[in-house]
Amino acid sequence: MAELMTIIESHLVAKGFDGRSRAGADGTEYLSISVVALVEAAEELKRQPGVVLIGLWAAEAFGAPGFTLFYAFEQRGAPAFFILEVRLPGNRGMSIAGEFPAASYYEREVSDGFGIEFDGAFDRRRLFLHEVYPDGCHPLRKSFDGGKVLPARITPEREYAFREFGGEGIYQIPVGPVHAGIIEPGHFRFSVIGETIFNLETRHFWKHRGLEKLAEGRTADAVVQLAETVSGDESAANACGLAMAIERVAGTVVPRRAWELRTAALELERIYSHLGDLAGMVVDVAYPAGAAPFFILREEILRWNAELTGSRFLKGFIVPGGVSRDIPIDFLEDLHEYTECFLARFDAALDDIYNSAWVIDRLETTGIVKPELVSPLNLTGPVARASGARVDNRIDHPYGLYQELKPEIQTDEAGDVLGRFQVKAGEIEESLRLIRDAVNLEETGPVRAECRPGSGYAAAAVEAARGQNLHWVYFKNGRVDRWKARTASFSNWLAMEHAVIGNIVPDFPLINKSMNLSYAGNDL
Amino acid sequence: MSLSQIIGNILGPKRAAALVFNESEFEKIGLELKGEIDRVFGRSLAIRELDTGSDNAVEIELNNLGTPYYDVERFGVCFVASPRHADVIIVTGAVTLNMAEAARKTYEAMPQPGWVIAVGDDACGTGLVRDSYAVLGAADKILPVDFKIPGNPPTPTDIIRGLLAFMTTILSQKKKR
């Protein structure tokens, strides 16, 4: 049994609470406790080194009437996840946002979806249900039939209350939801003194599409298709994360060949995503000629995706049990060859940027994410790594071939835009190496195993381009009863509000681009 | 950057010249589109993109149209920052409840005559999320859609081909009037 689990369990027993722990099919440690014991457990968990809240979600009618809350934790250095299962007799829970600030966002999400209230919560505003949803509408409840919602009239009293900032010379700039570029909708409320940002409040979920409700009743294949639409440029990562959770429920062993091809797809996705970010950052400092090589390389990778899998966004390729089609060896040989030619041109493009003082001047010291924010907010991916955190789901919780491929972690200490630029550039080169090492050009084999989940639940996490994406799925008689996806974007968006403070408004697009968080993947 | 590097950049062989773009089909459609835009819109077509609930793949492809491989501005297609500057609104994604009001306002800000093109399966009404409680439906549920370019997502070439077909319908509308 995992060490952390033993500590928490014995702590609770000593305090007179009773909890039963067990290992799940996914290697995750589960501990069922009451809502009163939760606060005690949270306090004890906070005292343990390196414990981070990585997810919080609810399920209804999960084995028994009423609600069950799931608090997912990880401890830096421990491969297994740790999930507290809290049974709620009614619809009142306890907030643990005091111990784990990341909980606040999750608690608001659970309140919207299920109508569960959290005692002690410091922020009770709605999250993904905007004012247009009538009061008392909780779409993730089983009693909600999933049909259409009659939009409510938006009166001034029902309007969303942004935090108030007053004082001499402070004014607000509201931006969005519809922005000036070809970009997803979101709202940013800047409080500004002169040109300097004093505070930023983001309001998202304009694109809330109700994906988790749509998953209910679907088969394994159909729900993975839904995962691909969480965020278009994370299609492979989310399909893989959910497929892994489903495979754990079904007890499926994915063939090695399938993992080779999955790894290639996952790393290609990281490469094209990061290339877009590098190009975007360079465009945002008004150097389009410097960005052009990155755009060209990205387009080539998108074409490779189409060549290899039939989709420029790798959609429909990763399926429960493996991959949907084999890739001919000669295609893969060509890909190997291409990576060489890619690397030379990529390095030349990077040299151009690193030798351009005016570009570096804009990137350096801009939008710093302080390292002490990483654990409380559960920051993940390049955003965390650029602030010195050695976190990477491929290394911390290895899946597929990553145990043997041993990806080399890319980190930076500065936490600024330049740091994120360098981390992403380093990761592109490392991903090329992983693709070359993952794909065996000699042997082939089956690419898909049978995967028939019956009943049960499991969690799985992948390292998407933006960081750790967590999937948890509960199957009942071969159909999805509850699917929860928590993307890296959902974790990382809060970092934006901190990173922009003290910067000037014109640098906001640059900071935003350096993190490149997904709106669709956040809003679900 | 040293002086010899700068001179080398001007006079030396360009890195891009070494890359062979086999884009004859895209070139052909693009030039045809340019001809149509010249005739109908007076040399340039101004497009405002409006995302009402896509998964962002369509946005990435629309952005790609402006990158060096495609560079559609040379055909007279430009993406503008405000609906007030737009001839056409391109809607991507099913219309979510949360976005409906903002989408209406964006459309109302466009000068008339203006057109609406739905791009991507979700905006065209055949996407995965059409039955969700959180979406009103396809783009035509709240905006007068003139033309549809389906795909999950449509490739840059699909989009340009769609724009060309859209020009043809505009032309026939004009003749009828």
UniProtKB/TrEMBL annotation, chain A:
Record's keyword terms, sorted: NAD, Oxidoreductase
Cross-referenced InterPro entries: ComplexI_49kDa-like (IPR052197), NADH_Q_OxRdtase_suD (IPR001135), NADH_quin_OxRdtase_su_C/D-like (IPR037232), NADH_UbQ_OxRdtase_30kDa_su (IPR001268), NiFe-Hase_large (IPR029014)
Positions of the NADH-quinone oxidoreductase subunit D domain: 294-450
S-adenosyl-L-methionine listed as a keyword: no
Domain (NADH:ubiquinone oxidoreductase 30kDa subunit) ranges: 37-146
GO molecular function: NAD binding; NADH dehydrogenase (ubiquinone) activity; oxidoreductase activity, acting on NAD(P)H; quinone binding
Pfam families the UniProt entry points to: Complex1_30kDa, Complex1_49kDa
Domain of life: Bacteria
Name of protein: Ni,Fe-hydrogenase III large subunit
Native source organism of the sequence: Dehalogenimonas alkenigignens
UniProtKB/TrEMBL annotation, chain B:
Xref: Pfam families: Oxidored_q6
CC cofactor: [4Fe-4S] cluster
Keyword Hydrolase: no
InterPro entries the record matches: Complex_I_20kDa-like, NADH_UbQ_OxRdtase-like_20kDa
Occurrences of domain NADH:ubiquinone oxidoreductase-like 20kDa subunit (ranges): 59-165
Keywords: 4Fe-4S, Iron, Iron-sulfur, Metal-binding
Single GO term (MF): 4 iron, 4 sulfur cluster binding
Similarity-based family: Belongs to the complex I 20 kDa subunit family.
Cited NCBIfam families: PRK06411.1
Protein name per the record: [NiFe]-hydrogenase III apoprotein, small subunit
Classification of source organism: Bacteria, Bacillati, Chloroflexota, Dehalococcoidia, Dehalococcoidales
